[in-house]
Amino acid sequence: MNLAERDIKHIWHPCSQMKDYETFPPIAIERAKGLWLYGSDGKKYADVISSWWCNLLGHCNDRINSAVKKQIDLFEHVIFANFTHEPAVELCERLALKVPAGLSKFFFTDNGSSAIEASMKMSFQYHLQTGSPQKKRFMSLSDGYHGETLGALALGGVDLYSEMYKPLMLDVIHVKAPDCFRCPYGMTRERCTAQCFEDAERTFAEYGHETAAFFAEPLLQGAGGMKIYPPLYLKKLRELCTKYKVHLIADEIATGYGRTGVMFACDMAGISPDIMCLSKGLTGGYMAMAAAVTTDEIYNAFYGDYSDGCAFMHSHTYCGNPLACAAGVEVLKIFDEEDIIEKANKNAIYFNKIIREKFADYEFTGEIRNIGLINAIELVKDRETKEPFDAKKRLGYRIYKEAVKMGVLLRPLGDTLYFNPPLIIEPCDMDFVTDAALAAAKKVLTKSAIAD
Ligand SMILES: *Cc1c(COP(=O)(O)O)cnc(C)c1O
Q1: Quick check: 421 and 48 in contact, CB under 8 A?
Q2: How many angstroms separate the alpha carbon of residue 383 from the centre of ligand 1?
């Protein structure tokens, strides 16, 4: 049996219909370097989705590898209650200098969803302990994505992931997210004054008094379709949250670490959230670790004698894992010493330019949108009306299969093709991946292919 056959026998893959694997078996990877994954089939694949958006500085980055190796020979893990270690402390010291003003306390968890869950509990408990026990509901944006555990799933607004589980979920209040491509106010990105914010105002007027926190992915709704919305909206959201004493919780799990062209997307709007969730890039994509970063004010509401019963009694086995922290420290050193964001921003101009040149003129290109190195191409059936393709045709999935054959790992979200490469991607690789993506899209989107 080859590896793919042995795999199918026992493994249940994430976010997959396993029946698909019978005709399109999993690709076995033997090693990886930089942008490239090397398969046991002798082929190589450009990882332009950063392996689910986490790989930041390339696979097998020499500096991160040696930092982790150095740490593993010292010790691999230790309980993080009552114990500490240099990598965790150094990571927080370094990050404290980079996070938006006012954020100073780091609570570690072991994946993105668990950072979201911890934030929900933290916000609820803060209000309970500061005289507002009625604040026990949560708000979030429609089309948001915050993870897969039940609390995080309830905050999310992507039906594909959450619809089925609604009977199990908290009753979260959803505010209609900005939809800049199909703006209901008929505005364009250039002329936008965030009129759509009126839905948030209405919703806060009705539910603000009973709401503990508002969760949002700042500027970029990732899993919801790589939707990009203006900083002005986020600024207004900050003001509204403050007015109603609702915590603003920025889910920077996907947007953090330079993905949007600045260290954190909140920076672009010049705002500070009350809690910021980090994961993915936090370890350079090396290890499962996350953090909920918060203010002294929230921290202080949990401070007292043990007998007061006001402590945050939340833990995850691997929180503060030293290997993950060592990777995280090295990531920040590399950011500082190698001008990673500046270089990425320079390359981002070229990336967006060639994507526009190659894709703009096709009938199937509804919108090309970009932020940082992230570029998304929303495919449509009709350019004039922006009518989407029939989801049942699974065109995005078919493009994915074609592109993989050509050596490019894309993973379209529905019919939105996107690139979210490691920040170290080079222009020559940009040429290659965009050519392959276009060829794959053209192959699938020919009239005959759409018709069958
Ligand atoms: C990936 C992601 C999460 C969930 O993180 P996991 O580590 O997969 O649990 C939450 N929010 C956003 C915005 C994400 O992109």
Answers
A1: yes
A2: 32
